[in-house]
């Protein structure tokens, strides 16, 4: 079992920045990758950015590449999502998750999820 606890998020004006954090505990050694996803009501969950726990290799969805940056601190067992240049379409619930399987941005591979955090971008 892996416990996933998120923090951060909130409201920001267009063009602003926010940073999300996600700390894991439990069977941390089983985690291959950690990722950030978002999902709105009635929408499918969208993979945004993932990072390999061992190598630090990253992958991004085209919708956020160049604006969002994922990073990790393995000492703190924490992964971060720095979000810059936020725009109203980025408004959504954001989730952190872990996978023991593979370096993939497909949410189907992720089995432990955080509680979600709201990000709202409006003027």
Task: Give the helix/strand layout.
Layout: E1 2-8, E2 10-12, E3 18-26, E4 33-39, E5 46-52, E6 58-60, E7 68-73, E8 78-83, E9 92-99, E10 112-113, E11 117-121
Parallel strand pairs: 2-11
Antiparallel strand pairs: 1-3, 3-8, 4-5, 4-9, 5-6, 7-8, 9-10, 9-11
Note down, in words, how this protein is organized.
The chain has no helices and eleven strands. The strands form two sheets. Strands 2, 4, 5, 6, 9, 10 and 11 form a seven-stranded mixed beta sheet that branches. Strand 4 and strand 5 form a beta hairpin. It has 123 residues and is mainly β.
In brief:
The chain has about 120 residues and is mostly beta strands. The chain has strands at about 1-10, 10, 20-25, 35-40, 45-50, 60, 70-75, 80-85, 90-100, 110-115, 115-120.
Give keywords:
123 residues, mainly beta, four-stranded antiparallel sheet, 51% strand, globular
Strand-pairing-aware structural class: mainly beta
Strand content: over 45%
Taking the sheet with the most strands, its summary is: 7 strands, mixed
The shape, in one word, is globular
Low-confidence stretches: none
Give the H and E element order: EEEEEEEEEEE
What is the number of strand segments? 11
Number of helices: 0
Q: Write down the Rg.
A: 13 Å
**Overall average residue pLDDT:** 96
Q: What is the terminal separation in angstroms? A: 41 Å
Measured as a percent range, the helix fraction is under 10%
């Amino acid at each position: 079992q892996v416990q996933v606890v998120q923090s951060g998020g909130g409201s920001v004006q267009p063009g602003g920045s926010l940073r999300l954090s996600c700390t894991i505990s439990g069977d941390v050694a089983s985690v291959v990758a950690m990722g950030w996803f978002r999902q709105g009501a009635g929408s499918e969950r969208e993979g945004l950015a993932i990072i390999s726990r061992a190598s630090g290799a990253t992958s991004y969805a085209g919708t956020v590449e160049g604006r969002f940056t994922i990073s990790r601190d393995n000492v703190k067992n924490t992964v971060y999502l720095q979000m810059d240049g936020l725009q109203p379409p980025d408004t959504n619930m954001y989730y952190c998750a872990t996978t023991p399987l593979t370096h993939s941005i497909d949410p189907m591979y992720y089995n432990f999820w955080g509680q979600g955090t709201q990000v709202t971008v409006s003027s």
